[in-house]
Amino acid sequence: MKILLLTILLIHSLAGLAGTNSMTELRFLLDARHLPEGTKVGLRGNVEPLSWFKSMEMKPSGTEMGKFELIVPFQHASDQWLEFKFVIEGKPVTFENLKDNRVAFLDQQSQVVESVWNLQQNILSLHVPPLNAYAVSQEMDLLVDALKSLHPGLYRYRSADQMDSMITSIKESLSEQVRYSDLFLYYSKLTAFFQCGHTFPSFFNQKALINQLIIRSPDKLPFSFKVVEDRMLLRQSAFFTDRLKPGTEILQINQVPVSEILENVSKLIKSDGGNPYKIKADLNLWADGSAEAFDVYFPLLYPNTKGQFLISYQTEIGKTEEEIVVAALTPLERKRLIELNYPNQETQTSRRSLSFENENTAYLRMSTFDGFILGIDWKAYLKKTFKQIHSKKVSTLILDLRGNEGGQDEIILYLGKCLNKNTMQLPVKETKTRFERVPDRFRPYISTWDTSFYDLRNQTERIDSTFYRLKQSTIQKVKPWPFAFDGKLYVLVDGSNSSASLILAEAIKENNMGTLVGEPTGGSLKGLNSGIIFFLRLPYSKIEVDLPILGTFTPNAPKGGLIPEIRIDQNVEDTRKGIDTQLEGLKKRLKRL
Q: What distance in Å separates the CA atoms of residue 565 and residue 557, rounded to the nearest whole number?
């Protein structure tokens, strides 16, 4: 009863903070002069009187062709922002081809919103109205309530007292007005603290404002890099210059030592059990267009309003330290420039390849088990791949899983069919959840891809006062495919392997299917919090937090990942020269066999 009353008060307090009954009048000006003469343009959005399903027609502005305007009245709200896009009227309607919706704020009596057709706006944090600290505190209470009520692994590594102390510390740091970027940082700090590799303010499910302020903002470093032995080694630069060559060591950024930067960013990275190898893997910046931890957290910790970076670097060990000023970029700008400079580059997420080192050895690279990222019919790809390996009668297979965090269980199960002539037994783990039915107070704020998990009363049984056990059976045995590989298997692993890729590596090791090579994996053998994810959309800031609801548990297991049978660490000297220490080290071992 107390929790329900608290929730009602939260909803009323947020509604009361939404503003008065006064009106905000926005005057939209659009420059669409490059569109064909006679084009009719409309406006759509997510706040009444706008709609995503019906346009408000814009009128010609002045005497110049291709310029349009429209005045729209909105209910004044100091805490509300509008998402909108311009459209070309026709059958069908053509929306602007932008990565994010446009954003305007309803916190003034009147304002002018100027735009250019198909040109993405850049929102500066200084121009965004701050959040009310009281409302933020209430919103944080909702987040904490959801974590305590729904998250299966909240206290796997932290005690209740430790969690409450962290929550109190964050609340005490709130000022009267809170910026969106600071709040995103607070939520990242909170979720990283209890050490779950699947819980964080997502980089992938945010609304337009958060995307433009934080995820895709023009404050990113203009190069990719790899962290080796706690040092930052440049991979590829967006600016073509001999001063920033691959292998160059970055020593300072804006006069802050790289060691300090990496340490502070590390504290915000999600990782099961605080696995240091997973954290190290996520410090790498591939700059391939995907959202990455360093890109998000570094500008939040070290805000940069100048639009440039002072970089201190060293081209070789023993050389004099030099400096260069480079421009800050958006991730998309950086990706385009790097692709121009390195037209044959191989990106982290697109790397899936099969090659034959010799008549006896095949090399298969799988950088992800996410079917969407792979962008192919993965089942057909694997079937074709292993038929080819079978036809060539290969005796040794190197499976490279480095950089592979995980993805779909279906892919690892199918790959398990292909890797060995024997049946693969999956590690046995108990699956638990904290609830059997999602409390009504959370339903307005959560969504997921399988709504059957809102009510698990027919699928669970109570274990104790804390957990319910999931009754549904999981696949434990994987029978081999007729063309399964029948030879010696070596699997390259690293700290990225922390979800589905860790499950596969663990199965390979437990079934004696192959030999793990490289660095310790990420993840935790105690179990993971994953499976179904609830997307918790917080009511005031609209920040989304990923919240897994299924936890797997293995009694008496260590909290770290897997230790490879053949340990080969990357080193600075090889990385500077572009040598893959682990792959080349394994090839040398195979030659000696």
A: 18
The tens digit of pLDDT for each residue in 207-220 reads 999 999 999 999 99
162's enclosing H/E stretch is helix 160-172
Degrees (nearest 5) of the Cα angle 229, 232, 234? 130
Is residue 85 within 8 A of residue 56, CB to CB? The reply is: no
Rounded alpha-carbon distances, angstroms, from residue 277 to 164, 347, 517, 518: 27, 21, 15, 12
Any idea which residue has 């802050």 for tokens?
A: 256
Q: Of 509, 504, 545, 550, nearest to 527 (Cα)?
A: 550
- Taking only the tens place, the pLDDT of each residue in 405-441 is 999 989 999 999 999 999 998 887 889 999 999 999 9
Structure tokens of 120?
Answer: 């993405």
Determine contact, residues 446/537, Cβ cutoff 8 Å.
Answer: yes
Output the pTM of the full model.
0.91
Neighbouring-strand partners of residue 403: none
Geometric angle at alpha carbon 210, from 80 and 73, rounded to 5°: 25
Whole-Å CA distances, 468 to 430, 437, 555: 11, 11, 16
Is the model more confident about 445 or about 121? Answer: 445
Pairing of strands 477-478, 231-237: unpaired
Q: Dig out the tokens for 396 from the structure.
A: 């040794």
| Res. 8 pLDDT band, cuts 50 70 90 | very low
Amino acid identity for residue 364 in this structure: L
Mapped onto helix, strand or coil, the DSSP state of residue 139 is helix
Calpha distance 209→312 (Å, rounded): 33
Q: Which token pair is 347?
A: 């990106």
Residues near 154 by beta carbon (within 8 Å), at least 6 away in sequence: 147, 148, 163, 194, 196
**Cα angle at 169 between 156 and 211, to 5 degrees?**
80
Measured at the alpha carbon of residue 428, what is the angle toward residues 426 and 431, in degrees to the nearest 5?
A: 120
pLDDT tens across 280-315, in order? 999 999 998 889 999 999 999 999 888 999 999 999
What 3-state DSSP class applies to 75? strand
d(C-alpha 396, C-alpha 300), whole Å: 46
Report residue 376 as tokens.
């192919």
Report residue 469: phi and psi, to 5°.
Answer: -95, 135
Distance CA 558, CA 136 (A): 37
Q: Exposed/middle/buried for 373, CB within 10 Å: 0-12, 13-18, 19+?
A: middle
Residue 257 to residues 260, 312, 324, Cα–Cα distance (Å): 5, 9, 15
Q: 């735009």: which residue's tokens?
A: 115
d(CA 245, CA 424): 45
